[in-house]
Amino acid sequence: MPVFVKKLLTWGSVAFLIYFMAFRPDGAAQLFRGIGAALIAMFQGLGDFLTSLLA
């Protein structure tokens, strides 16, 4: 992918994130809570898997 396109997509994503947080703060908070919950569930599942391997 050309460097210009990559920079354009990166800055576009940052601009959208700022816009989303500025004009829809409740929606942005719910989105980040959901992402955090998914990450916690993934790491907990990985920990359970590793625990079952060692038991």
Automatic annotation (TrEMBL):
<protein>
    <submittedName>
        <fullName>Uncharacterized protein</fullName>
    </submittedName>
</protein>
